[in-house]
Design goal:
Blueprint: E1 3-8, E2 12-17, E3 20-26, H1 28-44, E4 51-54, H2 57-62, H3 83-100, E5 105-110, H4 112-123
Parallel strand pairs: 1-5, 4-5
Antiparallel strand pairs: 2-3
């Protein structure tokens, strides 16, 4: 049986760099969240991954949250995909990961937008609203 765990990265800092809006990395709180999750997983052994997949920096730059109310076809920044293109990219990546690693336990560290789009892949929802996607109750 294949087990896939989707984990959103810790709190991050968004800002301008070289005139472009970018993900500038984890905030101090995000570093603490990541350390707490790491410590919990090591302590409990509740997830024993065969593989750990994370988004490369280039992908992180392109996958910031799409503002609510944006049209699916609207390209809100030159060089970035629109919502439909982003959804297709996430669906194709999830399909490829599951096909290539059947029977494995996979941890996928990703972004909130990709997590929301994954609901469409797994549950056939057009878009999900994750009310608790940014909390840290699980780290207590």
């Amino acid at each position: 049986m294949t087990h896939l765990y989707l984990i959103r990265h810790g709190d991050n800092i968004d800002g301008l760099e070289d005139g472009k809006y970018r993900d500038l990395g984890l905030s101090p709180q995000g570093v603490r969240q990541s350390e707490r999750l790491r410590d919990r997983l090591v302590r409990t052994g509740e997830i024993k991954p065969d593989m750990f997949i994370f988004s490369p920096d280039e992908f992180m730059e392109r996958t910031r949250q799409i503002p609510k109310g944006q049209e699916a076809y609207y390209r809100w920044d030159k060089g970035y995909e629109n919502r439909l293109e982003f959804s297709l990219q996430v669906h194709l990546a999830l399909n490829r990961i599951l096909q290539e690693h059947t029977g494995k336990t996979i941890v996928l560290l990703t972004h909130g937008a990709a997590l929301q789009i994954s609901f469409g892949f797994f549950f056939r929802h057009a878009e999900a609203n994750l009310e608790r996607s940014n909390d840290c109750h699980h780290l207590l």
